């Protein structure tokens, strides 16, 4: 039933203008449209990221959005870091070790960072 339908990620924020700046200017996403109540749609690859105001923003303690960025991961991490993004660091374990801001899991490179409301965003090289 849903296997032929397009889905999109959705992220709650407390401050629409702060979120607009982060997603548009820091992450470089194209604002695709705006709706009532401060809802924004950003183009990201072949899909959309919906950003909407909610008093429950940032309460999710798991990944909210993930991007598969392939071999561009190192350049993207450097660009985001230059724009002031701080990356999350998780403890090394048997399947994942960290090299600077990038976690390594076999051949995969992984990074996590938060938006201004604390939503966890994830990039991977896969």
From TrEMBL:
<feature type="domain" description="VOC">
    <location>
        <begin position="5"/>
        <end position="126"/>
    </location>
</feature>
<dbReference type="InterPro" id="IPR037523">
    <property type="entry name" value="VOC_core"/>
</dbReference>
<dbReference type="InterPro" id="IPR029068">
    <property type="entry name" value="Glyas_Bleomycin-R_OHBP_Dase"/>
</dbReference>
<dbReference type="InterPro" id="IPR004360">
    <property type="entry name" value="Glyas_Fos-R_dOase_dom"/>
</dbReference>
<dbReference type="Pfam" id="PF00903">
    <property type="entry name" value="Glyoxalase"/>
</dbReference>
<protein>
    <submittedName>
        <fullName>Glyoxalase</fullName>
    </submittedName>
</protein>
């Amino acid at each position: 039933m849903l296997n032929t339908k397009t889905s999109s990620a959705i992220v709650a924020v407390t401050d629409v203008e702060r979120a607009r700046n982060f997603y548009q200017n820091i992450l470089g996403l194209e604002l695709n449209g705006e709706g009532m109540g401060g809802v924004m749609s950003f183009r990201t690859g072949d899909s959309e990221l919906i950003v909407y105001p909610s008093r429950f923003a940032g309460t999710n303690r798991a990944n909210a959005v993930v991007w598969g960025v392939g071999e561009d991961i190192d350049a993207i991490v450097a660009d985001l870091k230059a724009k002031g993004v701080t990356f999350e660091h998780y403890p090394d374990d048997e399947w994942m070790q960290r090299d600077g801001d990038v976690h390594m899991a076999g051949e995969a490179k992984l990074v996590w960072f938060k938006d201004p409301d604390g939503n966890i965003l994830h990039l991977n090289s896969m």
